[in-house]
Design brief:
Layout (H helix, E strand, L loop, with lengths): L8 H15 L8 H14 L5 H9 L4 H9 L10 H18 L4 E7 L5 H16 L4 E8 L2 H9 L1 E2 L1 H10 L1 H7 E4 L2 E4 L1 H4 L2 E5 L12 E6 L8 H12 L2 E9 L10 H4 L7 E4 L2 E4 L2 E3 L5 E5 L3 E6 L3 E7 L4 E7 L16 H12 L10 E6 L8 H20 L4 E6 L5 E6 L4 E6 L10
Helix pairs in contact: 1-3, 5-6, 8-9, 13-14
The protein binds S-adenosylmethionine.
The site of S-adenosylmethionine has 25 residues, from loops.
Length: 437
């Protein structure tokens, strides 16, 4: 690696390693000048003269680690950043979600929320929606790795560019949801009460039982390399309700829209490709569920010992995915459903409308069936039993496997992309190499 700015090559490599270890962010030499400025300021505060000494202090792992994280993260954000995203949320997502979930409370996660503008933008749209639908309830959670920006989000006081832009473009929202405080704008308590912020690393294991209906993961994936993008997407996936939507950021072409990774992830509507905001709905298929996809839909299942049976039928314009928990039903006969492999295969064929004479056109993918760690007896063997049952059921219906990735000890995601007529099986990383929460 070439040395950047005033750093010696070794020091810069060490610095890049520390940034990656604590935040997952991949830095390169172009960030050298930026890091030099930020570290320099901190070193002056600490009366330190050598970068090496400062990095040693961070390596020691004490309180300086959080200062370091706050320093190396880039926290640019804005209210209603990229209006097309917010038009989608107000005009499509909220009405559709409310209609499909009567009486339920909508849960939104602004992941990598920075100073909170994104989460409060979502709250304003929810409040507007509530005016028209009085029974509507929502909760918004904003998280970020930087304690400094989380504190600003919690305070909810905005000055400078954020406040200026909001005043200029959304004066009606300012009047409704903010209180003027000298030059700054303070979020009104009605809006604040629906939004909570906390410090959270995207690489940390997700809290058990969390299920968000809408996840905003915007303008952060650009900072990660491919491997880390995949890890984050897998963790986000684990926190999403089965029909949740994931909104990835918009920005420079390509990297912050890892569309190729999206195929391994459930949900979400807004990806921008070639400068256009495109609709691509990626739907998570939960345990025991089966789904049929059409048009732009991508179906995805997160599999451990369960098996996923995917089907692509381009001639019929659809795809299907079953997420099966158990091999063969003890009850005789065929029932619609995906809990048992032997029910899932005929159920998928029936729901997709595949007739006996069409079966040769269907591409079948089988994945999952891992031997999960820490299990014993029947539960450790269930993966293999599921795989065997899938082979048997597919053969019984005259279906030939196009691809199989099954068994072993690692979980996988199986995604079936209806529009691109493609599928993807990816191993799920089990290691957690980021020490912080
Ligand atoms: C450019 S801001 C994006 C803010 C907002 N999502 C938006 O689109 O306007 C990126 C944010 O990601 C946060 N971030 C970077 N790495 C992170 C990680 N590993 N876990 C959680 N947040 C992270 C940074 O602290 C920063 O606030």
């Amino acid at each position: 690696m070439a040395a950047a700015a005033a750093f010696a090559a070794d020091t810069f490599a060490n610095l890049v390693g520390l940034v990656r270890r604590h935040t997952g962010i991949a830095m390169n030499e172009r960030k050298g000048a930026l890091l030099e400025g930020r570290l320099g300021r901190r070193m002056r505060e600490l009366a330190m003269h050598r970068y090496e000494d400062y990095l040693e202090l961070v390596e020691a792992g004490g309180a300086e680690v959080q200062v370091f994280i706050d320093m190396v993260t880039t926290n640019d954000t804005a209210f209603f950043r990229t209006p097309a995203v917010w038009s989608y949320i107000a005009g499509e997502f909220l009405p559709a979600w409310h209609a499909a979930h009567p009486g339920q409370c909508l849960r939104i996660w602004s992941a990598a929320a920075a100073s909170g503008e994104e989460a409060y933008s979502a709250a304003m749209l929810c409040e507007q929606f509530r005016l028209r639908h009085p029974g509507f309830r929502y909760q918004i959670v904003g998280t970020d790795i930087s304690t400094a920006v989380v504190a600003r989000a919690q305070a909810g006081i905005y000055a400078g560019r954020s406040a200026e832009r909001l005043r200029a473009s959304y004066p009606h929202f300012v009047a409704q949801y903010f209180r003027a405080q000298d030059e700054s704008l303070s979020v009104a308590s009605e809006l604040k009460s629906g939004v909570q912020f906390s410090v959270q690393n995207l690489f940390a294991p997700p809290k058990a039982g969390l299920r968000y209906d809408l996840v905003l993961l915007r303008n952060v994936m650009i900072y990660f390399d491919e491997e880390n993008q995949r890890k984050v997407l897998a963790k986000v996936q684990a926190c999403m309700a089965p029909d949740a939507r994931l909104i990835l950021g918009e920005g420079r072409a390509g990297i912050d829209h890892p569309a190729r990774h999206l195929a391994g992830v459930p949900s979400g509507p807004c990806l921008r490709r070639r400068g256009r905001l495109m609709a691509a709905t990626l739907l998570r298929v939960a345990t025991g569920e089966l789904r049929i996809g059409r048009g732009q839909e991508v179906l995805s299942a997160l599999l451990g010992s369960c098996v996923g049976v995917g089907m692509l039928w381009p001639e019929g314009g659809c795809c299907g995915l079953a997420h099966c928990l158990l091999p063969e039903s003890p009850e005789p006969g065929t029932r619609m459903g995906a809990r048992y492999v032997n029910h899932a295969v005929p159920s998928l064929l029936a729901m997709m409308g595949v007739r006996a004479q069409d079966r040769h056109q269907v591409q079948v993918i089988l994945a999952g069936g891992a031997r999960m760690l820490g299990r014993s007896g029947i539960s450790s063997a269930i993966g293999q039993l599921n795989i065997d049952a899938a082979h048997k059921a597919l053969a019984a219906h005259g279906l030939v496997l196009a691809h199989i990735e099954a068994g072993g000890r690692r979980g996988r995601t199986l995604s079936v992309d209806c529009a691109r007529r493609s599928y993807e099986v990816r191993p799920i990383s089990t290691e957690f190499d980021h020490a912080r929460t």
